[in-house]
Structure formats: C-alpha cells, structure tokens
Request: fold
Amino acid sequence: MTPDDVLKVLYDETMVGNAPAVLEHTNAGLELGMSPSTILFDALIPALEEVGARFERGDYFVPEMLIAGKAMSGALEVLRPLLAQTGAETVGTFLMGTVKGDVHDIGKNLVNIMLEGAGFHVIDIGVQVPPEKFIEAIQEHKPDIVGMSAFLTTTMPMFKVNINAIEKAGLRDDVIIMVGGAPVTQEYADVSGADGYAADAATAVRRAKELIAVRAGA
Ligand code: B1M
Reply:
C-alpha cells in the first residue's frame, strides 16, 4: 500500500465511521513512515469536513456524524503521543473546556494535543462545562490561560456568560481568556470580551504563546 492509498482509505473509512479500519490504517500509515500531521490534515480532518457538509445538505444525520467522530477520535488517540512529543520547557498552564450545552470535543482535543506539543501544561475540564466549573478550576489550578471552545452558533453566547461569571468572581485579571471553535470569528471573540481567538490548533498555539509573552511584558 502506498501513502496515497492509505490517505484515501482513511478519508473514505472516516466518512463512513469505520473505526477499526481507521485505526488499522492510521497504524499502517505510521509504519510506512507517514507523518502524524499528514494523516491528520490530509485525511482525517477533510473527511470530517465532508461529513459536516453532507449533514448540512441532509445526506447524513446525527448517527453518521457520531460514528465518523468516533472513528476520528480513535485515530487521534494513536496520534496524540506523536503529535504531543516535546522536549520544550513548560511555557504555561492552559485550562481548556467546551462550553455548557456543547458536546463537541474533537477540535478541543486537537488544540490540547498541539498545546502539549508546544510545552503547555494542559488541564482539560471536558465538555458541557458550566461557568461555575470554569471558576472552580481557575481557583484550583491557577492557569495562565483559560481556553473555551464552542462549536455551535447556539452555544457561542456562553463565552460572554462565562467571562462575566469569571469577572464577577474577581478572577478576570488573573487569567488570559482565549476562545475558538468552528463558527467563532475574531469579531465574535472581541464582542465576547476574550483576549484572544484562533481559527485552528496551530494558530491557537502561536496566539497562546504571544499572549503569554505580552502578559510577561516581553
Ligand atoms: Co456536530 N455540528 N452537532 N456533531 N459536528 C457541527 C459542528 C456542524 C458545523 C455540522 C454542520 O451542520 N455542518 C453543526 C453546527 C452548525 C452551527 O451551529 N454553526 C453541528 C450540529 C448542528 C450538531 C447538532 C446540533 C446536530 C443535532 O443534534 N441536530 C448536535 C449538537 C450536540 C451538542 O453539542 N449539544 C451535534 C452533534 C455532533 C456529534 C455528537 C454527532 C459529533 C461530535 C463528536 C465529538 O466531538 N466527540 C458531531 C460532529 C462530529 C460534527 C462535525 C461533523 C465535525 C466536528 C469536528 O470534530 N471537526 C461538525 C462539522 C464540521 O466541523 N465541519 C459538526 C474536526 C475538528 C478538528 O475541527 O471542531 O472545527 P473543529 O476544531 C478546530 C477549530 O475549531 C479550532 O481548532 C480545532 C482544530 O484545528 N478550535 C479552537 C477549536 N477549539 C478551539 C479553541 C481555541 C482555539 C481554536 O482557543 C481556546
């Protein structure tokens, strides 16, 4: 099998949610010497984008989206240690959660993996995180950055709700707040009162480092 064959199988099998085949071919790709990011960005993510497009057109329904997401998550577990390999010193603590009402976690997990790879200590507080839980976690872990993901237009307003609650708890000046997720824009992040926004995992890492440097007065 060539690397191109592997990418094609991974794309097709992710789209139909065939988790065992996705896992098998992720391993096969790695054995062929393919890079984890090629597998991720040239097959798995494009497949999920197509799944989303089919869902929008009414060709796919929630169960198809669910099994495709599970297939992707299985592969991500194999890729995680490879993507997150780092010799870097810890650059800061990043507390991360998907907002209340939202169960999407693949994008959040990918951002976490990239942050770990860049030397961040990441504390993941999961999905459907209510404001109180963000506040408790800030008090407990004292992170440099709080990251919030929202993947639905209906859950994006939770950014502002969370930020208001963090402000009310007297913690706003202690943390940098970053937001992101598929429907989020820089403009929406600004309106929500966040300090930073990124459209994807790689940009999230760059932005997080910039924000830490600015805070440190570098
Ligand atoms: Co849902 N879903 N889903 N879904 N789902 C989307 C998001 C959707 C765009 C599909 C579509 O219509 N095209 C649509 C949202 C439309 C909208 O509001 N704008 C949608 C919908 C409507 C729904 C339901 C409402 C469907 C229903 O029930 N009728 C429902 C909601 C459930 C809920 O949360 N309450 C629902 C459910 C689900 C599943 C559970 C079946 C499953 C989730 C599985 C899981 O996450 N464990 C699912 C899936 C798989 C998707 C799609 C197909 C794939 C999402 C994904 O993982 N993408 C998605 C379509 C799509 O995205 N094209 C869709 C890959 C991932 C790597 O990208 O998530 O964008 P992404 O993450 C990126 C960036 O956003 C960014 O970096 C990440 C990596 O590069 N980023 C940050 C993320 N967080 C960040 C934080 C940062 C910075 C950057 O700083 C802190």
